[in-house]
């Protein structure tokens, strides 16, 4: 069983190393980052009555929400054991959230979210209640959301092949400009 899983993982990872694989990853990252932006702003609206929550990037994308699902999709080959899938769904998003929060705080001396008032939290970057939510959300993503997004990708792939590099440059430019903006804010605040 472990051999079959490793073989499936190896095939998925080889696919990632192609131009077509990189294009698919960028598509999934873009979609999930946008859905994460919608989710977070909707949550902010229901809890604080304000739709727009400050974002690291300029565009309507939350990279943390794009990275975790892409990792989950590519690290869970078909026919993975259900315990392995559960383990990844409940740990990977939490690890991505913690690493993102710690990295942003280290680089910019600022927290974009703070769970320090929430029970079972770690350094304000992660907490058990949200980690459980991310785990269930990840399971739903793998079971229902990603198959629909993969179908969408299949239907737009010929068009996407022409524009994906421009979208990649957009994300790179947004990252560079946002990093510059937040670095300047850090300097001005010091």
TrEMBL record:
Keywords for this protein: Membrane, Transmembrane, Transmembrane helix
Domain of life: Bacteria
Ranges that cross the membrane: 12-35, 56-76, 82-105, 126-153, 159-177
Coiled coil: none
Pfam families linked to this entry: ABC_trans_CmpB
Presence of the UniProt keyword NAD in the record: no
InterPro entries registered for this protein in UniProt: CmpB_TMEM229
Name used for this protein in its record: ABC transporter permease
Protein species of origin: Neobacillus cucumis
């Amino acid at each position: 069983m472990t051999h079959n899983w490793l073989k499936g993982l190896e095939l998925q990872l080889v696919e990632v190393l192609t131009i077509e694989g990189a294009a698919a990853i960028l598509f999934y990252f873009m979609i999930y980052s946008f859905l994460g932006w919608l989710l977070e702003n909707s949550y902010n609206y229901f809890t604080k009555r304000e739709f727009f929550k400050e974002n690291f990037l300029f565009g309507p994308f939350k990279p943390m929400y794009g990275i975790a699902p892409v990792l989950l999709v590519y690290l869970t080959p078909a026919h993975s054991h259900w315990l392995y899938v559960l383990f990844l769904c409940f740990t990977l998003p939490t690890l991505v959230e913690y690493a993102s929060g710690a990295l942003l705080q280290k680089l910019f001396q600022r927290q974009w979210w703070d769970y320090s008032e929430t029970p079972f939290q770690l350094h304000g970057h992660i907490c058990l209640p949200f980690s459980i939510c991310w785990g269930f959300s990840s399971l739903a993503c793998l079971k229902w959301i990603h198959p629909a997004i993969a179908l969408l990708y299949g239907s737009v792939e010929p068009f996407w092949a022409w524009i994906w590099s421009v979208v990649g440059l957009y994300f790179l430019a947004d990252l560079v400009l946002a990093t510059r903006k937040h670095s300047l804010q850090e300097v001005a605040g010091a």
